[in-house]
Amino acid sequence: MPMLKDPSTKYPSFKPLNLPNRQWPSKQLVKPPRWLATDLRDGNQSLVDPMDGEQKFRYFQMLVQLGYKEIEVSFPSASQTDFDFTRTLIETPGIVPDDVWLQVLSPCRKDFIKRTVESVKGSKKAILHLYLAASECFRRVVFGFTKEESLNLAVECTKYARSITKDDPTTAGTEWIFEYSPECFSDTDPEYIIQVCEAVKAAWGPTESSPIIFNLPATVEMSTPNVYADQIEYFCTHISERNKVCVSVHPHNDRGCAVAAAELAQMAGADRVEGVLFGNGERTGNVDLVTLALNLYTQGVNPHIDFSDLTPVINIVEECTKIPVHHRAPYGGQLVVSAFSGSHQDAIKKGFMERNTKSQDSDYLWQVPYLPLDPRDIGRTYEAVIRVNSQSGKGGVAWVILQHLELDLPRALQQAFSKIVQKEADRVSRELAPREITALFERTYHIHENPKFFLVDYHIQADRSSSPAPRGGKSLVTRDLKRWFDGVVSVDGIEHHVKGTGTGPISSFANSLRPLGVDLDVVDYKEHSIGRGRDVKAATYIECTAAGIKDKVWGVGVHEDVVQASLLALLSCAASFDEVHPISSNGSITPKRIKNVDNITTKLEALQAEPGPKSGPDAVMSLDSHLNGHRASVR
Ligand SMILES: CC(=O)SCCNC(=O)CCNC(=O)[C@H](O)C(C)(C)COP(=O)(O)OP(=O)(O)OC[C@H]1O[C@@H](n2cnc3c(N)ncnc32)[C@H](O)[C@@H]1OP(=O)(O)O
Ligand SMILES: CC(C)C(=O)C(=O)O
Q1: CA-to-CA dists, residue 70 to 9, 73, 100, 344, 546, angstroms
Q2: Ligand 1 surroundings by CB, under 6 angstroms
Q3: Rounded mean pLDDT, 160-169
Q4: Residues 176, 178, 179, 182: what is their CA dihedral angle, to the nearest 10 degrees?
Q5: Where is the signal peptide (predicted)?
């Protein structure tokens, strides 16, 4: 049968509770609830292969480490594995901390209750949890019970449980809490729920210091979360001796609203939440405890559960349940702190930049676009935040280069390289890993190896004759001196002695290359340092045009010596031009410019004939003054 045209003939809408004076909508969550982790019971009972004792043991230790103080460890009457596991916990010294409660579940059957109590004998703190369905549907379909029969069984089992626990002197070493779950609470007449719980409460006899837990499950989620919140508020305001009652919720996720239901239920008065890490559990699962805790955290409330290192938690959960955590699961999903799309990456990168410049204070309020949580708080690195595929833009690519090579690319270079990356991502039709992007960058800009040019040796001098020293001892740096470059450049393995002058080191080097047929004009220049202290390096970015060629290219140079970084950047440009417009060893791409070089060479030779500074402070400029020279020379 296809889907019905009128589904209301099969699926009547849920009749909400009439609660006109509800208070919960104006409440806020300002503290964490009492948490109960039922991974080893409700989570376990829904697995294809339930956990063995060893897996349960490992999982239990992780829950304790995370900070859970109430852990439902088993359904001991169901299987020997569960019974034995519970015994192992109790009998292994040092495994259950003194402040941790072991919770065990039993149906309302005396033989099962007896066995369940036996399983926790000797424990310091135990929560005995009984359940019995209360809804009309379950009473009719599953049990064939009237309301009264169902209530009577609940009371009878509670009295029996009491007689073999807190009323039994042989169990005096155990501190007992009793929990009762009217199963299918959210599908049950609320007045009847109150009736049953009042009767159970009277049978158990809670005190203010040892309250009874009424766990009110959305066994199957059937309505919008606001309806569940109304039901919880109704219970909280109608149950007597509220101070002797802990109201617990146990939302399932059939409609995908379990997290919202748990949060609204707390606003409605619930004190405690039962759930499972990453929401494993029957059908669509239990409420996800990771999401609940981190939702509180990102609202400034400490959940008292420590997810500082979420990855090992995910690993253990996946290994024990054989269910992978969805890549888009809130907080834990592998992809939830990653952005592939260009505009997201750009915004995230800007958010990080602002954060870096504004404050280093750890209490600086988190405001990074698209990231509700600082990935580092849950043990994730910023590296994984930005990932690159064909949907990515320059911001994302620049981020990867910054993170992995510490190169802060100028905007125009970002644009140029991003096109290359996009082409490559399109070509391979998949994400490019950071190491692929950095390799592509290093190859494109000849960072480690220039395929054609090699700077063998060089010497740059200031030409004092180009600007006479003013009287009155003005410093050399302020004089507008030309530089002359004299060096050896290898082209395709053949060494050439080159010379040139210019207004700075870059232009003098550029001019020296012209006789080799390399005629470059610098149109943009940027530089920055990498690292600090003794290991500091310089990164230089130069954009050039070549005479007769329309395209501009970027060159990148990285070196401990700031001047050499610039020279390498220029050779990086030269090699890029050569890749598109090969330069022959004796040919030229611009005969016109070669003429200029003749002039330069003539002038250089004339300069060399003059007695000029060959060494000493006048001859070798400081790095800073070299840089000043660069900047002055860049158009
Ligand atoms: C909402 C929840 O998650 S509740 C927890 C559910 N978890 C589990 O069921 C896991 C462990 N369960 C088991 O191992 C088994 O079902 C057992 C051991 C509890 C019972 O096994 P069996 O005796 O073979 O019964 P079976 O599983 O076939 O059916 C359940 C029986 O318990 C009854 N029952 C169901 N819930 C309850 C309850 N809360 N209290 C008393 N009896 C109940 C059913 O009516 C049915 O009785 P029937 O056989 O007279 O018709
Ligand atoms: C035993 C109860 C709490 C339960 O698991 C449910 O109703 O989902």
Answers
A1: 43, 9, 6, 40, 73
A2: 42, 45, 75, 77-78, 107-109, 131-132, 142-143, 183, 219, 282
A3: 98
A4: 160
A5: none
Report percent pLDDT > 90 for the chain.
79
Domain 453-468+476-633 coded CATH 3.30.160.270: yes
Asked whether the ipTM of the predicted complex exceeds the cut of 0.90, the reply is yes
Best residue among 142, 183, 185 to mutate for probing ligand 1's pocket (most ligand atoms within 8 Å of CB) is 142
Name the CATH superfamily, with its identifier, for domain 32-321.
Aldolase class I (3.20.20.70)
Which range, 235-244, 422-431, 606-615, is most confident? 235-244
Which carries the bigger pLDDT value, residue 630 or residue 424?
A: 424
Which numbered atom of ligand 1 lies nearest the CA of 42? 3
Q: Please choose, from the candidates 123, 211, 242, the residue with its C-alpha nearest in 3D space to the C-alpha of residue 175.
A: 123
Q: How far apart are CA 466 and CA 471, in angstroms?
A: 16
Q: Which residues have C-beta within 8 Å of that of residue 448, sequence separation ≥ 6?
A: 442
Q: pTM (2 decimals)?
A: 0.81
561 to 76, 333, 566, 568: CA distances (angstroms): 72, 44, 9, 10
What does the domain layout of the chain look like in residue ranges?
32-321, 342-434, 453-468+476-633
Residue 324, phi then psi, degrees to nearest 5: -70, 145
The one-letter amino acid at 565? A
Rounded CA separation 399/172 (Å): 63
Sequence-ordered alpha helix ranges (H) in 18-100: 44-45, 53-66, 80-91
- DSSP 8-class letter at 40: I
- Judged by its nearest atom, the ligand closest to the C-alpha of residue 80 is 1
For 501, the token pair is 């002058």
Q: Sort 193 into a burial class: Cβ within 10 Å, 0-12 / 13-18 / 19+.
A: buried
Task: Check residue 534 and give its pLDDT.
Answer: 81
* Binding site membership of 217 for ligand 2 (Cβ less than 6 Å): yes
Confidence of residue 479 (pLDDT cuts 50, 70, 90): low
Structure-token match 């019970």, residue found? 145
Determine the residue of 41, 74, 75 to mutate for testing ligand 1's pocket, defined as the one with the most ligand atoms within 8 A of the Cβ atom. Answer: 75
The ligand with the least distance to the CA atom of 115 is 1
Q: Give the list of residues 6+ apart from residue 293 with CB closer than 8 angstroms, or none.
A: 32, 35, 303, 305, 307
Sign of CA dihedral 316, 321, 327, 333: negative
